[in-house]
Design goal:
The protein has about 110 residues and is α+β, with helices and mostly antiparallel strands. It has one domain. It has 3 helices and 3 strands; from the N terminus they run H-H-E-E-E-H. A 3-stranded antiparallel β-sheet has the order 1-2-3. It starts with 5 loop residues before the first helix and ends in a 22-residue tail after the last helix. Bound molecules: zinc ion. Zinc ion binds next to loops.
Length: about 110
């Protein structure tokens, strides 16, 4: 397996910092999902810039993102509104319907 040189490591670090500042409360799982989506989009459209769309979930009001035309997810990388509301100290927001999924305003 190839190792990353300093420039590549710097790029990964900057990408992670960019995602962290763009998605307050981002979990490790959410970060991994965003990075996977980013890599998938890059591989499928090599050479093109990744198309990132942002919006507000019409169900729960959270920030939602769509990378490279993939499905919308909440800023923590979860599709479901209730799943995205999870807080390690507080649990889930019980007021959110478990069936709700990230969807942009129409
Ligand atoms: Zn939502």
């Amino acid at each position: 397996m190839a190792t990353l040189n300093a420039i590549q490591q710097r790029y990964v670090l900057e990408k992670v910092e960019e995602l962290r500042s763009a998605h307050p409360g981002l979990t490790i799982d959410g970060l991994v999902d965003l990075l996977k989506a980013s890599v998938d989009a890059s591989e499928s459209r090599e050479g093109d810039a990744i198309d990132v769309e942002r919006g507000e979930c019409r169900r729960c009001g959270d920030t939602i993102v769509r990378l490279g035309g993939n499905r919308w997810t909440h800023s923590v990388g979860k599709v479901g509104c209730r799943a995205a509301s999870f807080d390690p100290g507080l649990g889930w927001d019980e007021s959110l319907d478990p069936k709700w999924k990230a969807s942009p305003a129409r």
